[in-house]
Amino acid sequence: MTTTTAPARPVDPVDAVPPLPKLTVLGVQHVLAFYAGAVIVPLVISQGLGLSQQDTIHLINADLFTCGIASIIQSAGLGRRIGVRLPLLQGVTFTAVSPIIAIGLASGGGTQGLAAVYGSIIIAGLVTFFGAPYFARLLKYFPPVVTGTLLTVMGTTLIGVAAGDVVRWGESDPAAMVPGLLYALGTLAVIVLVQRVFKGFLATISVLIGLVFGTGVAAVLGHTDFSGVASAAPVGVTSPFFFGWPAFSLTGVISMIIVMAITAVETTGDVFATGEVVGRRITPRHIAAALRADGLSTTLGGVLNSFPYTCFAQNVGLVRLTRVKSRWVVTAAGVIMIILGVLPKAGAIVAAIPAPVLGGASLAMFANVAVVGIQTLGKVDMHDNRNAVIVSTSIGLAMLVTLQPTIAQAVPAWLQILFGSGVTLGSIVAIVLNLLFFHVGRQKGPDVAVAHGRPVRLDEVNAMSKEEFVAAFGGLFPVTWPVARAWEDRPFESTEELREAFQQVVLSAGPDEQRALIDSYHDIAELVLTDPEEATADVRALQETGSLALAGDRLDDRDRTEIAALSQAYRDKHGMPWVVSLANLASRDQLVGDGWHRVASSPARELVTAVAEVGHIADARFDALVADANPIRSAWARKFEQLS
């Protein structure tokens, strides 16, 4: 009698454990990608609070030690509900730097200020831990207009901290500012050069390379002091509450809770990004588990003399780059960080980095935070004046107290933390204004279209019948069915949601409907080659709103022949008009180059591309509708657009 054995179930790559040598090498790689970002935060905070070198060494070691524990909790998991169990590495969040310095200085600075810092961190960590399951319900209070504003404010205010390090040598002797400035600019130049020349893993450790280069040059020229390395103990473990028992202040706690709310948004994005990389479907349970790990790690940070924790995005990129999906690699990286965290001599080496070198590196990193904020704000519908008010007011007040810090002295003591930090003030103002404009009372909304000869607001659009809705927005497409279907998605909470409804209808349509929609558009060759005097009224209108760089009278005979041939080749291959959004074109070369690529595409892929072009055209027409409904504000914006 023979027996058959069922084939072994393949191990999920996320749960697979590589051989020990490979596991170690891959873990070290994650630590290298993470290291510069990890050590800069305690360095900057230490210098901001005026701590001694010994205290700085202790902060660095405590940070690395707690980072290791936090990464193990997140990747390996603790129990069934803590830790997302994905290859996500934890690190101290940059978001917390400016509020921590503000809390510490308001409480007296030095180690005395750390007591209030750690009290705020512990409370914020506990709030995050216990509030994790409910965070999804709070996401609507942190839309891109809020998170983008906060990240922009954080990045720009932190640049001031980096600038302080750059000129540190010139505080008592202005002549010493010159070599410090050269070190900072040299470090920054190395970081930029590495990112320009290299790709992949080396590009991810460009800041670490810049720090090593700048410190190495300073060591050769005698501009740094490594005596602290010799005097540091070979082994040392941070003890709970090393800097004293925590103290608590209401404004400090509020500041840290806001920081954790922002990092919760970042963690949510990192979890979804990692899920996409490793092929895992992310559910609310995963988000709650990841946020519980953030909260627990942050609470541990307050106890073990470290700071708030979140997922590090650069290590998500490293997972994508290496294609190694095992979460145990990150666990191994956590073990390596714990080992580094009990070696004070390693922390002493980091503490010896000259202030201008640190300033040059942190300038690059903190400016990148601002760039992320600007990218996030790029997703915001600035045609909605409420969003513009939120961004401008929050950034304006944040810059006010950042550039004029003495304002904090003019307010009561309990308000000094709020007015002593641009990040804290800007964050609270952005959150409150978002609540005021979008969640409190009856929201009239912006004018989004013109109906019956007058502008109509979003609430009026939501009250329209299907016929009225189609009449107001029917010009977005040559046919009306996409608009009619979008009407069924009412009510719309924002102008951007209304815009997305039109896009979603087109994207969710069947292939036959999509091809029929594409067939209703004019071929791009017809638009750019037809003489305006001979064109039909609809073609002439499209020509007038199209790209000036493609005006027919600027094309020579050779251009015309090639575009006509390209159009015919496209129709022969794909059997539909060559649809292109004129607003996105800058030159004839771009049109022709993209066109031949599209001719070579498979029919299925080209259908997706053509549908995307239809979406771009609808976007441009939607913008025109909003501009027509808000002529004064649109004219004001165009004044600035014309300057470019």
Give an account of the 3D structure:
The structure is a single chain. The protein is mainly α. Strands 1-2 form a two-stranded antiparallel sheet. A two-stranded antiparallel sheet has the order 3-4. Strand 3 and strand 4 form a beta hairpin.
Distance N to C terminus: 83 Å
What structural category arises from helix and sheet content? mainly alpha
DSSP strand content: under 5%
**Topology, number of strands:** 4
Radius of gyration, in Å, reads: 28 Å
Mean pLDDT: 80
Helix content: 55-70%
Which spans have pLDDT < 50 for at least 5 consecutive residues?
543-553, 632-644
Main β-sheet, spatial strand arrangement: 1-2
What count of helical segments does DSSP give? 30
Coarse morphology: globular
The largest sheet is: 2 strands, antiparallel
Entry summary:
This protein is an all-alpha fold and 644 residues long.
Question: Which labels suit this protein?
Answer:
single chain; about 650 residues; two-stranded antiparallel ribbon; about 65% helix; globular; disordered C terminus
Secondary-structure topology with pairs:
Layout: H1 20-49, H2 53-76, E1 90-92, H3 97-106, H4 110-131, H5 135-138, H6 144-166, H7 177-197, H8 201-204, H9 206-220, H10 227-231, H11 250-278, H12 284-303, E2 309-311, H13 313-322, H14 327-341, H15 344-351, H16 355-377, H17 385-403, H18 416-419, H19 422-438, E3 447-451, E4 454-457, H20 458-462, H21 466-473, H22 481-487, H23 495-508, H24 511-519, H25 524-529, H26 537-545, H27 557-574, H28 588-600, H29 603-629, H30 631-643
Antiparallel strand pairs: 1-2, 3-4
